[in-house]
Amino acid sequence: MALSPGDPHSYARPELARVTHTHLELNVDFGLKVLQGKAILDIEWEPSSNEIILDSYGLVVSSVTDTLTQINLEHQVGHCGTLGSKFAIQLLQNVNYCNNRCRIQIEYKTRPSSPALYWLTPEQTANGNYSFLLSNNKLTYARAWFPCQDTPSIKTTYSAMVTIFGNFGPLERLLPTSLIGLSPDEGTRFVPYEKGYMFLIELQNILDKQFYGNFRAFLKFYLTKFSQKSINTNDWKSYLYSYFPKRLLELNSIDWNFWFDDPNNYPPRLFDTANTKLETVCISLAERWINWDDAADLQSTFGSTDIKYFCHRQKVYFLYYLHASHTILSVKKIESMAQLYQFNYQNDEIRFIWLRLCIKSRWRIMVPAALIFAIKFCSPKFTYPIFQDLYKWSD
């Protein structure tokens, strides 16, 4: 079934009919590991449309009703593939609705295998007393626990009434967020966030040469123009060119394939373009470690106070600089750094790039820690790069 022309990860067609409000009434069954109840959707549609298309992933739909007339609506849930199913509902055409607005009620239940719901037994929780349910709407998971138009272009209000029987822990509900034929869950494994950050810095340096603030102004207009819309990389690039019609020479000089198509390829000195005062301090310290002769005395060269006044972002930046460098630090240098800076006891983002730096330097005793970290957090952002680094460690 065809995906939306506006979003390659959704079947929804909000330009024809869209959800404006969602109300959920759900019962939580920890025994069966399912949510069961109903979703009541407020809908607006174009006069030329006779259906609304939603996204679904494994939902078992028992009925769809027009709440005004109590008439059962014809509906069809398509084959469930990587991106779930197309859920098409026929709207009544012979009813005098006000301004093409109606309300429908969908009775359904989730499946125990829903990727959006994490069911924890009491033994899996910190205090060991209660069961725990976590819902996860990242990427395209929202459609796996309630029928919705699971695309970033749709922002709706919502309300919910959740009933839980027996002893339970908190139910966490996250608001929905939303490569062709590729699940976003797979796609995010290949998103190098630090390279994207540096690409924006590169663009700013190029486009702000004549007048400082040009690129910032572009970003403000970009956010306004594409607010509540789904776009792809080509849309963004086209708008960049249209916004700077007199800067085509500079824009055409950019190696777009390098920045867009090879997530693992970095410029030899990627961080040269980042020259703020805070970043310069990080670069200076990193270069000292790169150039230090590890046969020399450690205490006379470095100390724990080196990063005492570094903010979180500076610590991450310092480690990313070392990781992106062509120089591979010796294990002795990494051991010394661990002793002085205690990176093993920092937050997740710092520990993530620290572990990757340890793997790059082939510090074997950190392999178990890297595996535990990857398994514990189980996020493509953290897990895939670590396993990829370990896979490349052939010796």
UniProtKB/TrEMBL annotation:
GO BP annotations, alphabetical order: peptide catabolic process; proteolysis
Cofactor names: Zn(2+)
Membrane spanning stretches: none
Coiled coil: none
Keyword annotations of the record: Hydrolase, Metal-binding, Metalloprotease, Protease, Zinc
Span of domain Peptidase M1 leukotriene A4 hydrolase/aminopeptidase C-terminal: 277-395
SMART domains with a match to the protein in the record: Leuk-A4-hydro_C
Protein name: Leukotriene A-4 hydrolase-like
Organism: Temnothorax curvispinosus
Gene: LOC112460502
